[in-house]
């Protein structure tokens, strides 16, 4: 069966989504979250529901197989997500059998795993222990997360969430420009606009964010690259610097020449990382830095070529796990504890992760992810690969 794909979208980047479908999915999720707020009863029932699901899910999957509503894949194929592939490969190393379940012929990221001790579990995306039912319900809610972290004294960008342009303008006027505007749910850099320093730019950015989400976050633009810290079972296992497309000056060559040289790197020939482009968007980003294609940047000057950090536009990654300042490591592990999350990806902006966040201005947590794309840690453009999949299976094998 051919799976329909969303049309190309410059604001979505390498992984476009259906705008209207995404918008209404978020709207429905928000409505249901408000109706089904866990509260005391929910916290009591969640562990029981998890146990029931753990027992019944494999049985339902077997039933779907019998009536031909589903098919079972014993080996990954071209439609298996990269994250799932990392888990699958690590499972083979430790005698864990993994099977992917395709409902109605569609990849739904549903799997059944049989551990070495014979225990069977089903999971969607990432296997989680029973303790994961205790995580806070607002982990993936950017608006609530910001409020809760502020109360707890954790560093976050100043800002707020707006559902109308007038609300967005009120928030913008209280902040120190430039600001960033992004969908308040989901995103993955989709429909996110940086360097917003006028109300005219705010209006355009707000409309872009609202194409896929009922509301937008407007917050101060923090200074530095985005770092992804992944905490598994309370321990910081990997930290990745996610870089916008860029070149480093040498004081001799023009930006055009530096881009051409960078594109000769074999890692930029695919399948993961891509060549840098000098296009209209690059020209805009250069202008923001008072540069042009023919400028000669100073030695070690970092020249950005695109707002987004996606691999498809030339973004790269670098493992910096060993460089993380002890204060920052403590912060990331505290975040996981506050969220009661067995696994969490923390997106954090700081000028240098080797410096303490306590001594750095305009730094902070921008979002957290309960289902982080940890495969990036396995495939850094620079630095040492980190086997996060192994840490996840270690956690599952320790759990009951």
Main attributes?
alpha+beta, 15 strands, 5-stranded antiparallel beta sheet, 4-stranded antiparallel beta sheet
What does this structure look like?
A hairpin with a 2-residue loop joins strand 2 (97-103) and strand 3 (106-114). Helix 3 packs across helix 11 (388-398) and helix 5 (165-174) packs across helix 6 (199-210). This protein is an alpha+beta fold. The strands form four sheets. Strands 13-10-9-14-15 form a five-stranded antiparallel sheet. Among the domains are: 39-125, no CATH class; 245-306, no CATH class. The two termini are 38 Å apart. It is built from eleven helices and 15 strands. The radius of gyration is 22 Å and the shape is globular.
What does the radius of gyration come to?
A: 22 Å
β-strand number: 15
Note the main sheet.
5 strands, antiparallel
What would you call the quaternary organization?
single chain
H/E order of the elements? HHEHEEEHEHEEHEEEEHHEEHEEHH
Q: Determine the number of helices (DSSP H or I, runs of at least 4 residues).
A: 11
Kindly estimate the percentage of residues that lie in beta strands according to DSSP. 15-25%
How would you write the strand order of the largest sheet? 13-10-9-14-15
Distance between the termini: 38 Å
Shape: globular
Average per-residue pLDDT, rounded, comes to: 87
Structural class: alpha+beta
User: Helical proportion?
Assistant: 25-40%
- Segments where pLDDT lies below 50 for 5+ residues? 38-42
